[in-house]
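Q: Convert this sequence to C-alpha cells.
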Amino acid sequence: MKKDLTKHTWLCWIIFLLGLEIIAISINLFYGPINIAAGGSTGISILVEAVWGISRPITVFIVNILMLILAAIFLGKKTTKNIALGSIVLPILMEITPSFKATNNDLLAVIYGGALMGLGVSLLYRVNASSGGTTIPPMILKKYFYLNSAVTLLCIDMIVIFLNIFVDGWNAFFLAAFSQLMTAITMNYTETGFDKKYQVRIMSNLYLDEIKKVLQDNYVGLTVYDVVGGYSDDKKKQLLIVVDTNEYGSLITKIHEIDPDAFIITSSVAKVHGGRWGI
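A:
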C-alpha cells in the first residue's frame, strides 16, 4: 500500500495534510480542553498552557523548531528535510482548527482523542512523513548509542504523561496512560486493517484427497505442501488455505464431515495481498 501511494504525489499530499489535521483535531477537541497530555510535543504544549497559559500552537512550534535544530546537528540535512514540513505545518493547523470541548465525559475524550491520534500518525507513516517533535531524540539516541527508538520514544512519552500528576492530579495521569493504549490499538488496526483472515493448515491420514477436492470446489487459493512427520519420518501432504472470518465455520464443518480426526491448525493473518483480495 505504501509503495503504491508514493506513486501519486497529489494523494501523498492529501494524506499528509489529513493526518496532521486529524492530530490537530485530537488535541483541540479532546486532549487540550481537559488538560490531558498524552506525550509528544503536543502533550508538552497542553501542560505548558495549563500552567502558564501559553497557546498550544506556539509551544508546539517552539519545541518542534528546537528539535529540528537538534536533527540538523546530529542527523544531517536529509533527515531534517523529511521531518521539517510536518513540524511546521502541525502548529499552523492547530492554530486554525477550532478548539472546544467536544464531550463532557473525560473518558470518552481520551478514547476519541487517542483513536484520532493513532489514525493521524498512521496516515503520516503511510506516506513516510512525520510530525517531528519528540520523535527526533529517539532517532539521535539510536544513531549514536544504538538504543531502540520505539523504547526511547515510549520513555519520553511516559515522562510527559507522568507530568500530568503535577498539573491535574492522578486522574489525568491514568487517563493519559489509557489514551496511549487507545492510540496503539488504533495504529495497529490502521496499519493492518479490520478485515482479518484465517490461515488454515489441514492434514489427514486417510481422506486428504477428498478434503482437497472439497476445498478446490468451494474456495480459491489452495496450496499443497510436501511435509515430513516429525515422529514417523513419513512423507505427507499438507493443505493450506486462507479464508475470510465468515467462511471459517463452514470450512471446519466441511472438513470434519469428511474426516473428524483431521489435524487442523488455524492462525490469524493481518493482511492478505494479491489474488482475489487485491492489495
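The two ends are 7 Å apart (CA to CA).
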